[in-house]
Every structure is written in C-alpha cells, then in structure tokens.
C-alpha cells in the first residue's frame, strides 16, 4: 500500500456495516471482515470521486461542492437511478443561492 493510502481518511467500518445491514432486507445477512474493509474503501473512494465530479458540475464558484453539483454529477456518470432515489433538493436550497 502506498503512503497516500495509509494517510487516507476512511469511513468507519461500524457505520458502513450499519448502512449495509440496513439496506439488505435479510436479518441473517453476514458481512465478512474483508468484505467490510473493501466496502469501506470503495465507499470512501466513491465519495472522493463524487466530490470532484460535483465540483466540476457546480454552478457556484469552484470552491463549492453543492447539492446541485452532486445531483448533476450522478446523472452525468450514469447514476440517474440513484439520483431519483434521493429526496428533493428543497431542504438544500441554500446551495442554490447566488453569492
């Protein structure tokens, strides 16, 4: 593993495990240690990737990652189905205010 990966901030395994268990409709689902570690790393990488993509799609100055940019990035990356599952942006309207 390179130095960059060793210094990387990861989501907590406990939180990722809870998300996995809550999203699967079977109470008997088990998650292996290696599966959990891998899922944690994948989720972290996805967030990093989405942040960069959202920054590119933001209509605000480029130092902002905003909800509109995130939604546009999801659609642009072919993840429109995920975007459709996300609640309305009404609660995040501060992201769309002009500065």
Automatic annotation (TrEMBL):
<dbReference type="InterPro" id="IPR003958">
    <property type="entry name" value="CBFA_NFYB_domain"/>
</dbReference>
<dbReference type="InterPro" id="IPR009072">
    <property type="entry name" value="Histone-fold"/>
</dbReference>
<dbReference type="Pfam" id="PF00808">
    <property type="entry name" value="CBFD_NFYB_HMF"/>
</dbReference>
<protein>
    <recommendedName>
        <fullName>Transcription factor CBF/NF-Y/archaeal histone domain-containing protein</fullName>
    </recommendedName>
</protein>
<feature type="domain" description="Transcription factor CBF/NF-Y/archaeal histone">
    <location>
        <begin position="13"/>
        <end position="59"/>
    </location>
</feature>
<dbReference type="GO" id="GO:0046982">
    <property type="term" value="F:protein heterodimerization activity"/>
</dbReference>
């Amino acid at each position: 593993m390179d130095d960059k990966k060793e210094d990387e901030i990861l989501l907590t395994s406990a939180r990722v495990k809870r998300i996995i268990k809550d999203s699967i409709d079977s109470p008997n689902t088990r998650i292996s240690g290696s599966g959990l570690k891998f899922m944690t790393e994948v989720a972290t990488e996805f967030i990093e990737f989405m942040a960069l993509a959202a920054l590119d799609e933001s209509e605000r100055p480029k130092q902002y990652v905003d909800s509109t940019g995130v939604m546009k990035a999801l659609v642009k990356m072919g993840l429109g189905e995920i975007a459709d599952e996300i609640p309305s942006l009404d609660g995040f309207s501060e992201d769309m205010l002009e500065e």
